[in-house]
Write a structure and sequence with these properties.
CATH superfamily of the largest domain in chain B: Immunoglobulins
Order of helices and strands of chain B: HEEEEEEEEEEEEEEEEEEEEEEEEEE
Largest interface: A-B, 86 and 68 residues
Distance between the termini of chain B: 105 Å
Number of helices of chain B: 1
Structural class of chain A: mainly beta
CATH class of the largest domain in chain B: Mainly Beta
Helix content of chain A: under 10%
Number of domains of chain A: 1
Number of helices of chain A: 1
Largest sheet of chain A: 5 strands, antiparallel
Radius of gyration of chain A: 20 Å
Shape of chain A: flat
Distance between the termini of chain A: 53 Å
Oligomer: heterodimer
CATH topology of chain A: Immunoglobulin-like
Shape of chain B: rod-shaped
Number of strands of chain B: 26
Structural class of chain B: mainly beta
Number of strands of chain A: 10
């Protein structure tokens, strides 16, 4: 075991930082569209569907699934998702995400962020100003652990 | 699925470092931005997330797969009657103009066919639509400059959020009465298709995606109205005789005072109303005897309303609204 660890460290040391090669944590992205239908009994039904047909105003749910397939804990795990230009951010699943409205230069909760308008005036940021969403994990992801992150957007 | 339900999916067992700054604001649903046309049909929404993490001393970066969602075309036509009030018309008038705007509220370039219905309920008569005209862009009806619409030939093609002014020309039936209202409905229908909102036309959208009918079901319509504003005039002529003996016997030398009362009725007005009366045979006009009400008028063709020429009097009353009367008097002597 010790020998294996040593070999692993040697192998990774040979490649530059931010190497893409290591497969130990996988990250998968999914997009679904949220449909609201009113049934014959008048009750509203909400379902998530494959985004086969999507028009402006549709609500999208983005799901990021991660899994540590390696044998080592993955520390300082940070997931960043730039918002596609045509999507207006509508919130993350648990409110734990950090947000950026300036292309990822500064981060915070929406209430802490400011936007500079074209004419130089500054105003409080709104959800639709969000350009990036990020999750920073305080604890390492143990080997074999998996989880999901989620955020919502609306097609502009 | 509610927001609460979604939390079932959140499975990171790790403590998320940003929890201290967890804000309620990011959970609250913000009002959706005003979406007129929205993202152009055919736009690709591509989403890729990336992650970094450390294994031992090494920082590693991983990208997710890229999800690509194509924005489909939403078809929404909006028609608005744009005259500020009923368009006034007269019985039998032709080329009476109603103005409408047709707006593409969808997110793709779309062609619209135009049609009208004049047999609407709730009005008093049915205007006869003679043509539909596409404005040249200034919003003013100009025969010759604007283009007469021919279905299937010059259907307006509108970019997202673009609109065009459409004029509907009608004839008012001769039998329409004063105060009657007649409506015409203009309909703009997507050439891609119409039907129930939400109907999808596979592969028919701009940019290769589907076309989906929006809240208007692919066609929009609005009603515009004419209002008949007619007026008429009735003339009553009377005569009184006074002879040189102080009685009313019409003997030679007697003076006859003619009184013409013009009474207008109706909600409209009469333009260039003039009263003409020939001096009867066997009588001679008394110069300077012409009066409009109590105002004396000269016989010359000059600035005042009256004149005497060709052995007839003429009084020009100009435009007289309905519900008024004008009294003209003149005198003759019996030869």
């Amino acid at each position: 075991m010790l020998r294996n660890l040593f070999l692993f460290a040697a192998a990774t040391a040979a490649v530059p930082a931010f190497a893409q090669a290591d497969p130990s944590v996988s990250l998968a992205s999914d997009v679904m569209v949220e449909r609201t239908t009113v049934g014959p009994d008048g009750r509203t039904q909400v379902s998530l569907e494959e985004p086969s047909t999507v028009v402006p105003g549709d609500k999208l749910v983005f799901v990021l699934r991660y899994r540590n397939n390696g044998r080592q804990p993955a520390a300082d795990f940070v997931v960043t998702n730039p918002l596609p230009a045509a999507v207006a951010f509508q919130g993350s699943n648990d409110g734990s995400a950090q947000l950026s409205v300036d292309g990822g230069r500064s981060w915070g909760a929406i209430g802490d962020l400011m936007v500079t308008e074209g004419d130089g005036t500054r105003r409080a940021a709104r959800m639709e100003d969000v350009t990036h969403v990020r999750w920073t994990f305080a604890q390492p992801i143990p080997a074999g652990e998996a989880g999901r992150l989620m955020f919502r957007g609306v097609v502009r | 699925m509610s927001f609460t339900d979604i939390s079932r999916f959140s499975g990171p067992k790790q403590t998320v470092g940003y929890a201290l700054l967890l804000g309620v604001s990011s959970l609250a649903m913000v009002p959706e931005a005003a979406l007129a046309a929205g993202t152009r049909a055919g736009t690709l929404i591509e989403n890729t997330a990336s992650a970094t993490y450390d294994v031992g001393p090494t920082q590693i970066s991983v990208d997710s797969n890229t999800n690509t969602v194509r924005v489909d075309e939403l078809i929404n036509a909006v028609v608005d009657w744009s005259d500020s009030a009923d368009v006034m018309t007269l019985p039998g008038s032709t080329g009476q103009v109603l103005a409408f705007s047709v707006t593409n509220n969808g997110n793709g370039e779309e062609s619209f066919s135009l049609s009208t219905i004049s047999t609407l309920g709730g009005d008093d008569y049915d205007p006869t639509v003679t043509s539909i005209v596409i404005d040249d862009g200034d919003g003013i009806y100009e025969p010759g400059q604007d283009t007469v619409y021919i279905p299937g030939t010059n259907d307006p093609v509108l970019l997202p959020d673009a609109s065009v002014t459409i004029f509907v020309l009608s004839t008012t039936p001769a039998g329409a009465g004063d105060g009657d209202r007649g409506g015409v409905q203009l309909i703009a229908a997507s050439r891609t298709g119409t039907g129930a909102p939400g109907t999808s036309f596979s592969g028919r959208g701009e940019g290769g995606g589907d076309a989906v009918l929006g809240t208007t079901g692919g066609d929009g319509s609005d009603d515009g109205f004419y209002s008949v504003s007619a007026a008429s005039v009735s003339l009553v002529k009377s005569a009184s005789v006074l002879n040189q003996f102080g009685n009313a016997n019409p003997i030679p030398g007697a003076t006859v005072t003619y009184t013409i009362v013009a009474t207008t009725t109706g909600s409209g007005s009469l333009a260039n109303l003039a009263i003409n009366d020939a001096v009867p045979t066997g009588t001679t006009y008394v110069p300077g005897s012409l009066r409009l009400g109590s105002t004396a008028l000269t016989d010359a063709a000059d600035a005042d309303a009256g004149r005497f020429a060709s052995n007839a009097i003429t009084v020009s009353l100009g435009t007289v609204p309905g519900g008024q009367s004008r009294t003209v008097t003149f005198q003759v002597t019996i030869n």
